[in-house]
Amino acid sequence: MQAYFDELVSSATGTLVGDEVLLANITGERTDFIRLNNGDVRQAGSVDQQTVTVDLIEGRRHVGGSINLTGERAVDDARLSALLGQLREQRRLVADDPYLLYNTDPRSTERIETGEVPDAATALADIRAAGDGRDLVGIYASGDTFSGFANSLGQRNWFQSATFNLDWCFYLRADKAAKNIYAGFDWDDGAFARKVDWSAQQLVALEREPIELAPGDYRTYLAPRAMEELVTLLSWYGAFGRRAHETKQTPFLRMVADDASLSPQVSISEHTAGGVAANFQSAGFLRPDDVPLVVRGAYADTLVSPRSAQEYGVQTNGASDDETPQSLAIAPGSIPFADVPAALDTGLFVGNLWYTNFSDRAACRTTGMTRFATFWMDHGEIVAPVTALRFDDTAYRLLGDHLEGLTDEAEVLLDAASYEHRSTTSSRLPGALVGAMHFVL
Length: 441
Known about the structure:
single chain, 441 residues, alpha+beta, PmbA/TldD fold, 2 domains, seven-stranded mixed beta sheet, globular
């Protein structure tokens, strides 16, 4: 497909008129998927698809469009040629774009990550063995995702990665389930077994009568999946984007405008080198291996898209147009991951959060609910599940004044979304031990 894309764009380049410049991107996947319920396969299949998106530029006017590839060269050439003809007609009707910026210094790259991903049959055998005697519900997806960039200036970039993602739970009854995820680049039987064992312990605890806690502050451990919900909310609303910072809409406004900070234990970066997203973006700019966003609790930098770079007179660092992280990472801390129950001692173990939103965006105050299995622990042992709780707290407390520590391991979390195509957004997050998290209901 890499060679096919190169040939397709090279052919289209030969049809350009005058001073036209062509930018082209391809996204694709070869994915095997298995959906399970009660440990049995309910749906299985594979997806093999590729989409090419182009931007046809003349001066400062440009128009874009896309086609799905068939794999038949004559058909795809004809469809791309027809699309370029339509874009040429449409471009006559659009105004100049003052913020248009694309890479004119061709730098070609290739990165292919193969990983140790089991075939579907092997993975299914391991998953079904883990669910033996239990109601295992989930979906397993694995295979290659790839992205490519090419332009009429001769630049060629290719990124390909093999990953797996098992999003699953042991279901008990009604709203009781022990949720878990196992994802990454290299399948490890031992790591999977440890996750299965922890979920099995949760399943036993879910049989007990739940505890109803009064509103108040509780010592809390936020598992990596719960942390993901919090940092995803920050990302969506511009905590790390240049445009949101310039327009004073960032949730981290107090970090930029005042003297607020997070804990010195917290360092956040866009770690492209360890992610699943491409190391280049749609206008041909390369992404650094790592962009420090928060360093030891202090604001350091933002993600800058080409459009923001043009508008605000700064350098782009290859961010996507929406300036959200694609490969977010929080540096691990010093709490041994295996010793989390002992470190928590007595308090709440929160595996998941949902319905998160801002209750005061400018103050970075968030609210949301605990989800699935949240447990009260006493002296490092699970006592009983806890009924759903609503929290309302700020990042400056949860990841600031009240943060006692982060785990010494960061878990790879892959976005399980598959709308239109398999997501390549990922994160590497540790768990967080918080001395006091505020719950209001």
